[in-house]
Design brief:
By secondary structure, the protein is mostly beta strands. The protein has one domain: Rieske [2Fe-2S] iron-sulphur domain (Rieske Iron-sulfur Protein). The protein has no helices and ten strands. It has a four-stranded antiparallel sheet with strand order 2-3-4-8, with no helix packed on it. Strand 6 and strand 7 form a beta hairpin.
Length: 111
């Protein structure tokens, strides 16, 4: 069964920025793309860099270690298409960003 977590106030993350958060024991990257919020896994599959500490250009967050880019809307990697990250559903309620995380048995990579 999926679970929802309140991970941030919307005013705490300006457009074009990202940060790492934790919910349900998972490290996640929260990204604001022009006022739209997206959540992906926080760990880069290349060397484990924190994607939430990366820089955002358009809808792509770049790992701060080696620059791999991940489309926050799909999880696709621009350098290695075979290395996507998970994306998670986000809702905005009462000024807060909520993420829905599946049970471990329901989690899967895109594609």
């Amino acid at each position: 069964m999926a679970r929802e977590f309140d991970i941030a106030e919307i005013v705490s993350l300006p457009p074009g920025s990202s940060r790492s958060v934790e919910a349900g024991g998972q490290r996640l990257a929260l990204v604001n793309v022009e006022g739209g919020f997206h959540v992906i896994d926080d760990v880069c599959p290349h060397r484990g860099g924190p994607l939430g500490a990366g820089f955002v250009k358009g809808c792509v967050v770049h790992c701060p270690l080696h620059g791999w880019g991940f489309d926050v809307t799909t999880g696709a990697c621009d350098v290695r298409p075979d290395k996507p990250v998970r994306t998670y559903p986000v809702t905005i309620r009462e000024g807060h960003v909520w993420v829905t995380l599946p049970d471990v048995s329901e989690a899967r990579l895109p594609g």
